[in-house]
Amino acid sequence: MKAEYDLSKMKSRKNPYAAKLKKPVSMRLSEDVVTYFKGMANEAGVPYQSLINLYLRDCVMKHRTVQIAWPSSKV
Questions:
Q1: How many domains does the chain have?
Q2: 37 near 52, Cβ under 8 Å?
């Protein structure tokens, strides 16, 4: 293998995988939620962030929606 390569004549191109890269986000999760996913991730042998991402991706693929029922206030 050469010690040095001349890369000045190479044409640049966009990364074809750039659109599929993950976007870093910060979010606040309840401690029990994190503990739950860490436990499941430990059993599965994957990082818990990856497991949360897989779960959310499954929600996207199945078009799940959140059903929130706020308790009615009695006055």
A1: 1
A2: yes
In a domain, residue 20? The reply is: no
pTM of the model: 0.65
pLDDT tens, position by position, 4-22: 888 888 888 888 787 778 8
State both tokens at 47.
Answer: 């990082």
* CB distance 52 to 34 below 8 Å: no
Angle in degrees, CA 65, 57, 46, rounded to 5: 135
User: What is the rounded CA–CA span in Å between residue 39 and residue 55?
Assistant: 14
pLDDT at 1: 56
- Full domain range(s) for residue 37: 29-69
Q: What would you measure as the largest C-alpha separation in the chain, in angstroms? A: 81
- The answer to whether residue 11 sits within a structural domain is no
User: Residue 63: how many CA atoms within 13 Å on its side-chain side?
Assistant: 0
Tokens 């999760």 belong to: 29
